[in-house]
Amino acid sequence: MFNVKVLGTGSFLPARVVDNKELFPLVNNFELEKAKDSFIKNKIDIENKSDAEIFDLWVQKVCGIEKRHYVSGLDQFPEYYEVEMMAAEAAKNAIADSGLKPSAIDAVISTNFTSNTIIPNSACTISNLLGIEECSGFSLNTACSGFIDGFYDGYAKIKAGLCKTVLVVSSEYLTKETNYNDPTTAILFGDAAAAAVLQAADDNGVFGVFSRIKYSDQHIVMRYGQKIQMGGGPLVQRNAVNAMYHSAEEVCKQADMTFNDFDFIIPHQANMRIIKELERKMKLQEGKMVVSIDQIGNISCATVPLTVDLLRKGKLPGYQYKPGSKILCTSVGGGYTYAATAFII
Questions:
Q1: Which of 63, 113, 223, 298 has the fewest CB neighbours in a 10 Å radius?
Q2: What confidence tens digit (pLDDT) does each residue in 173-213 have?
Q3: Are 168 and 315 in the same domain?
């Protein structure tokens, strides 16, 4: 049995940044008067604010998001390969961060559910874009927990001695699958990609992995040819918090550590209410829970690795990352799928 370490991380954010005020004219069926009444009831001054500014306040109140990134013509990606192109850019950055060459990659694990191309699968296309001539690989879809599920599989491949170096890359083009007639859905999503390089090591750099599925007809549904449909309300939020807490707790048991033994906890950035409730439930010391949703929105499986990379590269104000930090990641996705992992990097 081999030990595993995370050797490098990388990410890619599309060039176009869309804040809530720019998003406002794209969203239909927003109940402006209802939002105004709520703010007035809560004694929030909106007298001199425009409709777009009120929408901005409402979005921040509902989910905590200020802006997100959109794939657009600025990125010059060919149609049908936006997901793969973003993934390749993130992977290039992760491989460079690891100090390796692309030829060192033995397996590519690609996670997404928004690729336009079914065959060839996205891992095949990504490996070609990276110039990797010979490797194994596959694509998986477990929605928001996809990166950690891919990490889980890459970890197992290395532990078993089947591979020495594995690239796990998550990429989503969610804004093309967003229902802009549903304001509570339209405000959530952004586009991006992120990746990590795992490698066999002498020292133990990964403390634990956990992954489970449990069928539910709630939370999120997406059928072929249709847009994303989101559930909502207290039950969905409670289930999300409990699933991420349970996953993280299982990894802590494997590592014989507590939540507060970690330098940073990185949950899936579903919405700010879920993050804050998870932080309360974990009883975390101040500064350990990492929040990125305000800057990037919800990017499904790319959210966790993107947050890890932004943290490491000093692009999340308010957090002081140091090399060798212990990081615990936990996520929940539609299905339900839920997973967690912990590592030092």
A1: 223
A2: 999 999 999 999 899 999 999 999 999 999 989 999 999 99
A3: no
